[in-house]
Amino acid sequence: MPQKQQPKAKANQSVERKRSKRGEDDLTDTGDAAEPDDWMQTKALVKPEDQLDLTDAELKEEFTRILTANNPHAPQNIVRYSFKERQFKQMSSVDQLAIHFSLDGNLLHKESEEARRQLNRYGKQSQDSEDAPEIKEATSAAAGITAVDEGGDEGAADGEAKEDAGEDGAAPTVPKAKVRSVEKKLTNQFNFSERASQTYNNPYRDRGTVTEPPPRASFASNVTQWEIYDAYQEDFEKQEKTKEKKVVPGRKDEGRTKKKFTMSESTSDDITRIESAAKIVERMINQNTYDDIAQDFKYWEDVSDEYRDQEGTLLPLWKFSFEKAKKLAITSVCWSPMYKDLFAVSCGSYDFMKQGNGLIIFWTLKNPSFPECYFETDSGVMCLDIHPQHPHLIAAGFYDGSVAVFSAVEKKEGPIHRCTAKNGKHTDPVWQVRWQKDDADNNMNFYSISSDGRICLWTILKNEMIFQDVIKLLLPDVSAEGPDGIKVPTTGCGTAFDFHQQKDYLFLVGTEEGKVHICSKSYTSHFIDTIHAHNMAVYKVCWNKFHPKIFITCSADWTVKIWEMHDPMVKHDNNENRKPLFSFDLNNSVGDVAWAPYSSTVFAAVTSDGKAFVYDLNINKYEPLCEQMVAQKKKTKLTHVEFNPTFPIMIVGDDRGCIVSLKLSPNLRKMKAEKKGAPPPDEATKIQREIEKLDKILTMVREQPT
Amino acid sequence: MAEATEEKKADSDSKRVHTYPLIRHSDMNDEMKTEAMELCVTACEKFASNNENAAKMIKDTMDKKFGASWHAVVGEGYGFEITHEVKNLLYMFFGGNIAIILWKCS
């Protein structure tokens, strides 16, 4: 035992020595393990200063060391309570095992069986991407090995420190292994869905545009003291001037505004100020009220016309009546040449016993409730005409024989011109007036015809109206006896005239004796031709709108007649008793007749028994296409009729101051069917066709007599 | 400068000297024009004896207010030929003897 103990003590001694050698920092407590000194000696690189110097004898001294399997630190005297013997007993057997360092290696040799298996498992991965890490692993593993080896060699005392050092190398291998194990987690093969996904990343592109640079301009100048001085001088003068100017116009402006103010004060009272607004509202209300009529006017076509060949109808549309005109007769109607919906009517009385005041009224189709404007006159207005170029000017003839010109635009109640007894006033009622083309001096002029037998030309100069007798209707063969036995030449009583559309000089005159004279402006006392047309007063003569030789007359003798003007060069024997081309008996006094503007063969007539007739010679040469009662009351006489130049309507006036507008049904305005696909004919060919159409009918009639 | 003052004196002796800002040429809008003009006046009054500083102040202030790259020239006699961005030019006189050209061009 002592033998045994000695080396132990020695060992302890050596340990002690070593401890002192390494100092305090070496805290590892080690047991036996291999003596480092032997190892160190071979190297003998470092010799600590405090190393004992031993003599050779001492060095050669042999120490016999016996290694035992006993743990020197293991407690020798463990006492445990034995329940069997009911006392503490020393344990005989003591665990002598002491583990100083353990390290589980996970390094494989590349060519080992397991490494090969692993390689197979990771296959390609290890080949291409993990080639380098594998090698690294291997190297680090190698480092780990060496470290461990060193630790092992140096002794367990350094084990922990070595492990720390080795961690640098070994640590990366551990997480690697972990990662690998995570990656290799087995998936549920029956119900597996991979969560992660990666979308396709759109590639980034650069795109550039060049904007226009801001616009630039160049400017150059020179600065000198004198230029600066001049500029100031100039500017100063300007300022002075503007100051002066400002003072002057300031006063003027004040004056003007004052003037304006007074003007507006004097002219615009409350009513005129709202006039335009009121007019708009009035129109709106009328549009609502008469909406159905407006719809009819525009869109209604008599469907039944398709089943009737030679008949048509007139659809009454608006009815125009004015309180002040209630007791007056409509003596003439005239559409405005400018506004398609505007027309003027004159009101007077045909009754010699009941003469009174007169009216000129402007109506528009848009407002049947109240006239657009009107003029009141002291005498009955028997006729009017709107100037074709200046639609605001109206010429009017009165029952008292005077003529006048009214202007619709001037805010003047009375006429702008009116003749008096001094300057050429007619002595009998004026039955018709008609504007003519401006004369050579560009003065406006019009003609008038009256029962006194004169046809006058009125020329409007600046401030006055001068007259000129164009023709006197003398009755050559008859002369009346004066009270003193003087022969007084009797005059014919003109009642109607109409001017030829192409030949300026040519015009027709209808007389109360029933004669129709074809006259020329050039011959004041001579007629080109005279026809004994009617047995009673001729109420209207009218040239055909298309055919230059055809005209129509109507008379109180119940007839409407169509005539052809003979060539004046050819002498006819029985001019006086010539027969008309057509004669229609309407069974009552015919007040007015009018050719349609759209056809050479269509005309309308109105009679005193309240009927309107529409004829189309092209369809029926003997009977009217339409004979319709228009007047509301039985006794109402129709006095005048006029077609609208554009719309398929006509207006009819009666002797109670009332006007009715009538829409012509499709049969009444049937035109010659155009060939399909043919281009629409121009105006000239249209006129030509209309003339041909009428001529064709006339040839049949012309051959009939003789 | 001495000459200028002499001139001034001579002017004031003979006629009146005008010192108000006088815009000779400008294509700026009115708002910008008045602002620039006032700025020029302040700068020239502040640095009455140092045109360089005045020009610097004008340029810096304009840069701050209306964006970079303004140029200003302040002086009593010089000639110039410049290219400027449209609507960014002011050419004015001030104080009776100073001409200021201010423009933007980047």
Automatic annotation (TrEMBL), chain A:
Keyword set, alphabetical order: Cell projection, Cytoplasm, Cytoskeleton, Dynein, Microtubule, Motor protein, Repeat, WD repeat
SUPFAM superfamilies, A to Z: WD40 repeat-like
Biased composition (Low complexity): 1-11
Domain of life of the organism encoding this protein: Eukaryota
Location of region: Disordered: 1-50, 117-178, 199-219, 239-264
Chief localization: cytoplasm
A Gene Ontology BP annotation from the UniProt entry: cilium movement
Keyword Oxidoreductase set for record: no
InterPro entries: Dynein_IC, WD40/YVTN_repeat-like_dom_sf, WD40_repeat_dom_sf, WD40_rpt
Acidic residues bias (residue ranges): 26-38
Per-repeat ranges for WD: 531-565
Transmembrane parts of this sequence: none
Regions of compositional bias (Basic and acidic residues) in chain numbering: 239-256
GO cellular component annotations of the record: microtubule; outer dynein arm
A GO MF label: dynein heavy chain binding
Annotated localization: Cytoplasm, Cytoskeleton, Cilium axoneme
Pfam family, one: WD40
Family: Belongs to the dynein intermediate chain family.
Protein name: Dynein intermediate chain 2, ciliary-like isoform X1
Biological classification of the source: Eukaryota, Metazoa, Spiralia, Lophotrochozoa, Mollusca
UniProtKB/TrEMBL annotation, chain B:
Name of the protein described by the UniProt record: Dynein light chain
Source organism of this protein record: Biomphalaria pfeifferi
UniProt keyword annotation of Cytoplasm present: yes
Cross-referenced Pfam families: Dynein_light
Function: Force generating protein of respiratory cilia. Produces force towards the minus ends of microtubules. Dynein has ATPase activity.
Gene Ontology biological process terms in this record: microtubule-based process
Lineage, opening ranks: Eukaryota, Metazoa, Spiralia, Lophotrochozoa, Mollusca
Top-level taxon of origin: Eukaryota
PANTHER family in alphabetical order: DYNEIN AXONEMAL LIGHT CHAIN 4, DYNEIN LIGHT CHAIN
InterPro entries: DLC_sf, Dynein_light_chain_typ-1/2
Keyword annotations of the record: Cell projection, Cilium, Cytoplasm, Cytoskeleton, Dynein, Microtubule, Motor protein
Family membership: Belongs to the dynein light chain family.
CDD domains, sorted: DLC-like_DNAL4 (cd21453)
Principal location: cytoplasm
